[in-house]
Amino acid sequence: MSPTIHREKGYRFFFFSREESRAHVHVACSNGEAKYWLKPDIELAKNHGLSRVHLKEIEDIRYIMKNSQALGENVSAEITHISSTGVWLLAGDTELFMSYEDFPWFKDAPVGKILNVEEPHPGHFYWPDLDVDLTAEIIEHPERFPLKAK
Questions:
Q1: Number of helices (H), then strands (E), in the chain
Q2: What is the pLDDT along the chain (150 residues), one digit of tens a residue?
Q3: What's the order of all strands across the beta sheet hosting 24-29?
Q4: Nearest residue to 25 (alpha-carbon basis) of 13, 17, 40, 11
Q5: What is the pTM of this model?
Q6: CB 3.0–4.6 Å: which of 50, 63, 65, 112 could bond 32 by disulfide?
Q7: Alpha helices by DSSP H, the chain
Q8: ∠ CA 41-46-49 to the nearest 5 degrees?
Q9: Burial group, residue 27, by CB count within 10 angstroms (0-12, 13-18, 19+)
Q10: What pLDDT, on the 0 to 100 scale, is given for residue 64?
């Protein structure tokens, strides 16, 4: 999975959560893709098809500079499996299961929307495409938080 963390000027900023331990970000557009190391300094690691003009434009986007401290370090949630019974979410070293019975929002949702999960705070998960907010406690103990409709 490669969560999108920012979009600007036709560029998509993303990372692969289990790719490697050194903080980095990938940036892609229709012409190619680049990878930037974020520590110890921001530097181009790889370039596949982007011109100097593209690279300059990417580097001028202050998002990388402004957020380089947080990128690739604070996000630890990812969907590891989607089955006919539910969805598995890996948060840090803990895998959480969300059955469709307890979490019906995921049952008929497109895969891309399920995969787009954010962890704005430790133990708090948000699916922006589905407008679903859950905590680890809710996922671990759904019986404590019954669904009620009026």
A1: 4, 11
A2: 566 777 888 998 877 766 676 778 889 999 999 998 877 778 899 999 999 999 999 888 866 656 654 554 445 688 888 999 999 998 877 899 999 999 999 999 998 899 888 887 888 999 999 999 999 999 999 999 887 655
A3: 4-8, 11-14, 24-29, 32-37, 43-48
A4: 13
A5: 0.52
A6: 50
A7: 52-60, 62-67, 111-115, 136-140
A8: 135
A9: buried
A10: 66
For position 74, what pLDDT does the model report? 46
**Alpha carbons 99 and 86: distance in angstroms, whole number:** 4
Kindly state the tokens that stand for 58. 């990417």
Beta strands 4-8 and 86-91, pairing class: unpaired
Quote the CA–CA distance of 2 and 4 in Å, as a whole number. Answer: 6
Lookup: tokens for 148: 């009620």
Q: How many residues does the chain have?
A: 150
Burial letters 96-126, b for 16+ CB under 10 A, else e: bebebebbebbeebeeeebbbbbbeeebbbb
